[in-house]
Amino acid sequence: MRPGPLVAALCTAEILTMLGASSFAALLPPFTALWSLSAAEAGWISGIFYVGYTLAVPVLVTSTDSKDPRSIYLACAALTAASAFLFAWFADGFWSAMAFRLLAGVGLAGTYMPGLRILTDQISGPSQSRAVAFYTSSFGLGTALSFLFTERSTALLSWQWSFAIAGVAAAVACAIALLKVPARRLAAAAARRNLRADLALVLRDRTALRFSIAYAVHNWELFGYRSWLVAYLAFAAAATGRDASLPPTAVAAVATLLGMAASIVGNEIAARTNRPRTVVAFMLLSAVTCLGFGMASGLPPALLAAIALLHATLIAADSAAMTAGLVACAPAERRGMTMAMYSCVGFLGAFLGPTVFGTALGLAGPAVAGGWIAAFASISIVLVVGAAAFVALGLRSETARRSDGA
Fold first, then answer.
1. Cβ-contact 177, 11 below 8 angstroms
2. pLDDT tens digits for 308-367?
3. What is the extent of the structural domain holding 386?
4. Which of 15, 17, 163, 283 could bridge across to 88 with cysteines, CB 3.0–4.6 Å?
């Protein structure tokens, strides 16, 4: 299959499976009121999605080394559809919402990275990095459309219809993968791989490890920001008594769309410069902007929205650069396991981001500006620590290479 149609099919399917991914975050304030949720409980419902992802991804993505990733993708796209239908019909409080969002996270685990594996198996050479950038940035586009779609469909219909239609979209994604993505014929040796030996090699790969840690920090910030952005903007509007120039969900959607472009551009910059240094620079710039954004709740709504968009751009700028760097360093025969480690470590950060943010906010006080400053500061601290770890692992890797050469 030619690269263009394959990339288009997989990106379209990914966007459709993501239509319900941000539905809870987009509706966090009304769900909090409807179900009398505390800040910590709301953070847990947001974060449990990524627990499901983190628990499932080692098994599902590692399996792509010995199984056709298309079959895994099809099953998990169907699971994504089912989880959305179940949420629409049966969610009525904290525990039911937790269960159905957990299933949705498992569905994401079996579509996002297996879809990337399908792509990287069939596209190689210089065009692979660009294909990875388009695919990973489509994750952001799907998230943006999820915010917009959820806000509009809930206003016109109800939140139940919003989740139900997202389930239909995931079913359509399943059909696209079935009809447009070719099956992979596996060599007999692939099914007889020594998983324990492969895992030992992956865990000793310092380059893969440093990109995995950086991805965890990136997701900590990204999903903490996305999960609480709408609620923060709503707080700022209420605290200042000013009408927002744009609805909070619209700001979240535009921010995510900008992130898609930033991810592609950031990867192009990294490919033409020093990739690790570019990643660190974006992490540190984002740390400063994140703290500033948390301190800006008293600013006029238009200026606060502008800072939100700048922050979203910096958050996404290193996303594709990290993933493309990981794929480039992963041997083809262990690519699935390497991607599984990367995704598992990365989405542990996706779980911790919203959860720690919500916990810090609850402890410091969600009704005061200081509570939000503390919550955003928790993200900035993690970014600085993550950048330091990324640099340290790079130095250790360089030292090891010199020792091996000697």
1. no
2. 999 999 998 888 888 888 888 777 777 788 888 888 888 788 888 888 998 898 888 888
3. 3-183+191-405
4. 163
